[in-house]
Amino acid sequence: MALKVYNTLNRKKEDFVPLSGNRVNFYACGPTVYDNFHIGNARPLIMFDIFRRYLEYRGYEVNYIVNITDVDDKIINRAAEEDVNFKAIARKYTDAFFEGAEKLGVRPATVHPRATDNIDGMLDLIRRLLENGHAYEVDGDVYYDISSFPGYGKLSGRDIEQMQAGARIDVDERKKNPLDFALWKAAKPGEPSWDSPWGPGRPGWHIECSVMSMLYGAETLDIHAGGQDLIFPHHENEIAQSEGANGKPFVRYWLHNGFLDIEGEKMSKSLGNFFTVTDILEKYDPMAIRMFFLLKHYRSPIDFSEERIKEATAALDRLKNAYHKMNFILDMNEDIPSSESDKVPDEIKQFRAGIEDAMDDDFNTARAMGCFFDIARGVNSIEEHDGSAPAYMKEAREIFDSLGTEVFGLTFGTEILTDNLTDDLMGLIIKIRQDARSEKNWALADRIRDSLKDIGIILEDHSGGTSWKRG
Ligand SMILES: [Zn+2]
């Protein structure tokens, strides 16, 4: 089955076919670095990271571009409030963005271009739009003339005439049309500025994505992604700029993630339900945050609450415990010749196909997670001495590693489990306890078990030996 994606532009699921063979130019709108990013921003960050990884899993060569908007009204206002240079604000929150992304298990993009490094490209594109009649200059500002672009509104499906009527209340006399938007803004006193043919100023927000997607990707992108809130006006304006300048389709597939609410309400600082990723990571396992997003299809609205995170944590724990059992059984059966352990039961083979089918269906991570829970159930129900156990566990672990970790970015071992020294020490303690038991020194054996329990380690006695896990 081929990968299908829901294309906002055509409002339907379509077969995904990149423009040139195996290569995928994938652009996602990145953060405006004026504050710590919040849990709503984490959704596209995590989900698009997974789309990129899945495309790579499917054999595509992905050029993944996530821009950094490091000059903007919000940054300038914040700098004025704190009486510092806008660059200091941008630097601080760019660092915070990368730090948070890393903690959430998000891989760096192929490239993270910054707006302020690409001013020349923006000047060039604005000049071309002026030359071919898509833009006009007024007193040092340059506006895009939306009446020059007949496709305006095609992505959002909005009725331009109705919008114009609605916008008239807030009319700017200098603009030809109330929906015309700024490509270049003349600098007000004290604002950061760059020289331009129209006087000192700075770029509008929309122009940077058109420019950076072209410079670091291609004139026609395979995928452009962002939150649904960016469809209008941001992405609509990007289309007008890029297609106006290049005369070719800007994007083949537009992907948009749904909104995030907090316990049924819109997140806002005034409601006191505003959570930054930093706040959340102090309280919760980053892998549980990933799981929380994975359990919902990316286009559906998602509701964030303590309850949902607890559910995600429990779901993750089920997978971690299953992973632990896989490793335990595989360690126990290390000596079995591979011909014996290679008889993979059909049931487990179907799981990989199930996960791939789910992801091929517009990245349905919720359904893919369902397959992981099925595997965990299968793993838990197999008796250790069952002859098919090693083959089952081997394939299950392969799926957990190659899809669970590589694609979904989940780690199933807790830190303590992945640390070799801890593993060795636990092996030693378990051995001493076994010796105590064989000498019928039950008091010592029990003391070892109870003391470990006190520090959060559970011993489990099986017919083939003793395993341990974090309680
Ligand atoms: Zn953008």
Question: Can you walk me through this structure?
Answer:
The chain is of the alpha/beta class and 471 residues long. 48% of the residues lie in helices and 15% in strands. It is built from 17 helices and 15 strands. A hairpin with a 2-residue loop joins β5 (135-138) and β6 (141-144). The radius of gyration is 27 Å and the shape is elongated. Bound molecules: zinc ion. Zinc ion is lined by residues 29, 209, 234.
Brief descriptors of the model:
alpha/beta, binds zinc ion, 471 residues, four-stranded antiparallel sheet, 15 strands, 17 helices, four-stranded parallel sheet
Biggest β-sheet: strands ordered side by side in the sheet:
4-3-9-10
Strand content: 15-25%
| Bound small-molecule species | zinc ion
Low-confidence stretches: none
| Radius of gyration over all CA atoms, rounded | 27 Å
SS-based class: alpha/beta
Number of helices: 17
The global form is: elongated
Number of strands: 15
Helix content: 40-55%
The N- to C-terminal Cα distance equals 41 Å
The major sheet is characterized as: 4 strands, parallel
Instruction: Compute the average pLDDT.
Output: 92
